[in-house]
Every structure is written in C-alpha cells, then in structure tokens.
Design goal:
Two copies of one chain form a homodimer.
Chain A lengths: L1 E5 L5 E5 L9 E10 L2 H7 L16 E9 L11 E4 L2 E2 L18 E2 L11 E5 L3 E3 L6 H4 L2 H14 L6 E5 L3 H12 L3 E5 L3 H9 L3 E3 L6 H8 L5 E6 L4 H10 E9 L7 E3 L1 H6 L3 E4 L5 H13 L4 H4 E6 L3 H10 L5 E5 L3
Helix pairs in contact in A: 3-4, 3-9
Chain lengths: 338, 338
C-alpha cells in the first residue's frame, strides 16, 4: 500500500508498505479521504518536531471503509463506512474527572501515533463512528473539523436568537459560524483576508474586515447596543484578543478556540466589569461527533463549497507547499483511494 | 449632624451639616457603622478623582437604623435595622439583559453619589435590606463585603467537596474562603504577607506563601493530582495570574474577583488545553445580600475576628493614614453613632 511520511524539514516522502492485519480490538480501514488540518500544517512547518516521532504518517480528518476486523471487535463489520475520533484516552486517570477527551495523558492519533494519510490505517475500535451506508465519504472527511465546531458551539451554551461574533473566517471559523447559524443565532464574522471575506459573504454571512471598518461600532449598531452574547476567538492573534472583550455584551461568553502558544495580553477589567466568561474548548466529545455526522448526512449546510481542492495522496508535498503559497483556500482534501 | 468629605489630595474634612428630610421614595438612616473598603482607599489615594465628584462623602459598607420615612415608602418603618445595597440601577436599559447589578449606567452609591461615612444618610428605598431586630449592627457592616464573597462563590457554581484555591488572603479573599468552606469546599489560601498568612491560619485555613513554597506542587500533592476545581483570583497581581491557570485542574473554573486596571498577560493555552473557564464577578445581586444577611445573623462564621479595628467617625483621616502604614490589618470600621 501507499503511505506518506512526514520526514521533518518541510518534507513528505511516499513509501510502499505491507498492509498489516488489525490487532486485537482494532480494525483496518481503507482510507477514502483525509483533510489537511491547521495542525498538520504546523507539523509540516516543524513547529511540533519535539512532539512528533519523525518519520510519521500524519492526518486525522478522514473517512473510509472497514477492510478487516481484529479479534474482539464486535460492533463493526467489513464494509462499514466509518470516521475515526482520533483520541486515545487509554491513559485516563480519576484526576481527569471523566473528561476523557482532554485527559492529561491523551494521545492524539495522527500526531502522537500514525495517522490517516495513507491507503490503509489500523485503529482501535473505540475511536470509530459508523456512518449511514449512503454517506458521501468526501463530505464525511469534514466530520472531524465539524465536530470541533459542534463542540465549540455546545461549550458556548448557544441559544436560538443570540448574537454571535466569530473572530477569524478560516475553515474552523466558518464551520463554527455555520453550526451557530443552524442553531438560530445571528452570526457576524470578522476576517482580514479579503478572499476569505468574500468567501464567507458568499455563504450569506455578514462579514466585517476590522482593518477597514470599526468592528465594535458595527456590532453595537447592528445589535442596538446589546453586543455579542457569544464570541468565538478562532483567529489566534493579539488584535482578536483586544477586540473580543469589547464586542461582548453584559455576561457575554467568549469561547477560546484558538491556540495561543505564548501568554497574551487580555483585558481582565472587562471580564470583571461586564461579568464576561471565557470558556476554553478543545477537540470534541462523542456527542459532538454524533451531531457532526447527523449534519453531514443531512447535508443541509454548504459543506461542498468549503472543500476548495481534492488532490491525490501522492501530491501531498505539493499540497502542503500550495497551502503556504495560497492562504486564501479553505479545506484541502487528500484522496487516498488510488 | 457630623459628616465627612473626601476633599482630594489624601484629605478628609469633617463638617457639620443640616439633617435633610427624606425625599419621595427615600428613607433617612441613622448610620451605625461603616467599614472601609479597598475602593475607599483607592479614592483616598486619588486613583478615582476623575470619577468622584469632589468634595464627596464616601462609604458603602454600612449598617444603621431608619430614622425617617419619605412619601411613598411602604415596606419600611422608622426603627428598622437596615443595610443598603448601594447599587442605583435607575438607568437600566433592555440591552443590560436584566443584569441590573452591572447595568451599563449603574451608579454606585458612595462613589458616584454621597455615601455613608456620616451620621445620617438619605437613600432610595429600593436599596434597603431589613435586618432582624436583634442583629449586631457592627457585624452587619460586613454584609456588603460578605455579599461580594457570596456572589463570587455563587458565580463559581461551587459544590460541596470541591477543591478551592483563593489567591490573596485580604478581607475579600478571607470572606470568599469562609463562604466556600461553609459550603463544604476544601479551601487553600495563597498569601504573601506573613501577618495575613498567620491570620488566615488562625481561622483554620491551610495557607501557602508562594514566595516561600511551590504553590502548584503543594496543591498537586494535597489534591492527589486533581488540582483546584475552583480558583478565586483576589490578589490583583501578575504572579497570581501566572499561577491561576497552573493550579486549576481539568475544566477548572477561575473566578476573576480582582480589578486589573491594565491588560495583563494570561496563559490562554491552558484555557484551551484544560478547557478552563474564567468567570468575571462584580458586586452582588439581591439574593447575595439575603445570603450574607442570613450568615451574619446566624453568626456561625468568625466575623468578629475579621474586624481588626473600630474607630470613631471623626478619626477618619487617621484611619486612612494608618491603613497605608499598616497593610497587615483586616477590616477597619468607622463608628458613626456619636
């Protein structure tokens, strides 16, 4: 089978490997599609070389069909369409308080162990979610990032009719915006990349470029002074942190989706003054996957348009190079079927 | 009657003024005691000269007896023992979403209008809470700061058996610790002032001086790796912000009680990684006052010991000067009765 490996130094190799039989409690998946996540790009840039065991097959935004079943696997059969929730919580302890998905010794499959950017992939059965037989496997590769969005929106406790500001209109920001709008929220997106601004407008969103307009004044006017009930910080930059406390109304909830590697300046006075809440949100839980699968199989959101390129697996090197050259794109998917 | 006035330039004057009849909807209170709040000390230091209309009678941590009733006041009578919830929300708008206590145009009585550091004080009746006839009026002057603590603990959603770390063992920190312990939490206090460390230990708390011991390691050991379920940031300094995300366990809640006037560095990665929550908490609501009054009248917490000095009203200048000279003290109360 064809497999890809991150070799360090912004380089992927393509190898031929023996297909392995699944071990006890595992299944072997014939991978259909695997999306490129921002984290994969971070790995490609060498930002996670300390964590990643090079050479490593990466990738976790996948869909596929079960090809072989290991001993002890009872709930799945060959031919089942599946997605993988790539969280290995076998190191969970009582001090994790039942929050398996963020347990202290969590291993993220595709970062801390081999991932899906290959033709066949062996994974433990507890990571699997079965898809309906008629599921479009290309769209199903969006289940993982869509589950992030479902988790973020659930952690926000979003209610119908609430005013939402999404800071950052990249793939996750857009998915958060789509899920929030689907729940009946009135969604504004703040984005500085003009191509992404146009893209989000094409999906029917009100989008503000804060480098061109006064975001806080705009939200104030459009919400008649109520400001945002919920803010999603998906941009990961200081200007987003500066504005998140300003666009939030009294008792507003700010969901921290972005990964800020270094301590950053936050206006804590506004947290005190308006009794704001900051809610950290990371990955997803089982119910978020179930919600995302229901959304994908219903296909009522414009998922197709978020996939801006589908490339064969063997083009992996070019795909990552192009993501760097073209920051305007949305979701790029690798076709692992041939 | 005797009244005191903040005159700017770290100076209080004492004046004789005519007692005024209460207006429609107001009562006149014969003030019994008035505690000195950290905010009063800020005013004395000139930090709030832009907000305060000098000369001004300040003070809001009070108790007293109704002395005269204005027209239209129906629920109160002369002779009633009362405390004042010093929040004037008459400028409340729909965009405040019903959160009267932090409405955008909130006026804080005793800062934005005359306060209680005088012998008689006229206030609107909607600010009043009636006390049982046998209430100790000296202890009742703690109702206001105790309500802050009740609000903070309520905003935390604190549950019995939870592990709590209070950062800062001053008057508010101690009251938070006492209320949290009363609700069945296991409370640790972090404090750098050695006199306050001893004081809190005297109240039976486990107190760590983070300048002398490893606070995070201590909490890790004592909680067997569970870390804090709830952290109260009452210190208002950068080292407390640095440690608050480290002592919090998975899905820990951090209540922001301190007032940070400037943007400060916060480890947002920990919010993401452990799905922490930051909860801003400001002043109190009606139910917090009711809870504080019940605690004071039951007198089952060591409130007496928190009052470290009672001074006659006319000593106001000396009282504020001494607070600067002696940062070890806890709550200082002005006796306004003679």
């Amino acid at each position: 089978m064809k497999t890809t490996q991150y070799e360090g130094n912004q380089t992927f190799s393509i190898k031929n490997k023996e297909i392995q039989p699944p071990k006890h409690g595992e299944v072997r998946i014939k991978v259909a599609f695997c999306g490129v996540c921002g984290t994969d790009v971070h790995i490609y840039h060498g930002m996670m070389d300390k964590r990643v065991d090079i050479p490593l097959t990466i990738g976790h935004e996948m869909s596929g069909i079960i090809d072989a079943i290991g001993e002890g696997v009872e709930e799945f059969s060959t031919g089942d369409k599946v997605v993988v929730r790539p969280l290995d919580n076998r190191g969970e302890k009582p001090s994790d308080k039942g929050y398996s998905h963020i347990c202290k010794d969590l291993k993220f499959i595709g970062i801390d162990s081999p991932g899906a950017m290959q033709q066949y992939w062996n994974v433990p059965d507890f990571t699997l979610h079965k898809l309906p037989a008629d599921t479009d496997l290309k769209l199903a590769s969006l289940v993982e990032p869509l589950s992030v969005a479902c988790h973020d929106v659930r952690m926000a406790g979003l209610k119908e009719g609430e005013q939402v500001v999404v800071l950052g209109g990249g793939p996750i920001g857009l998915l958060v915006a789509l899920v929030a709008r689907d729940k009946g929220a009135n969604v504004f997106i703040s984005e500085v990349n003009q191509t992404r601004v146009q893209f989000a407008r094409g999906l029917g969103f009100t989008v503000i470029n804060p480098n061109e307009s006064d975001l806080v004044g705009f939200i104030d006017e459009k919400t008649h002074g109520y400001m945002a009930d919920v803010v999603f910080e998906v941009a990961g930059v200081q200007p987003a942190l500066d504005v998140m406390t300003a666009v939030a109304g009294i008792r507003g909830r700010i969901v921290m989706v972005a990964i800020h590697g270094q301590p950053k300046e936050v206006n804590l006075f506004q947290f005190f003054w308006k009794e704001l809440q900051l809610i950290g949100a990371r990955v997803y839980e089982k119910e978020d996957y179930e919600e995302a699968i229901a959304l994908i199989t219903a296909n009522k959101l414009p998922f197709e348009s978020i996939i801006t390129a589908v490339e064969p697996l063997e083009n992996i090197q070019k795909v990552f190079e192009n993501i760097d050259k073209n920051p305007d794109g949305m979701k790029v998917i690798l076709d692992c079927q041939s």
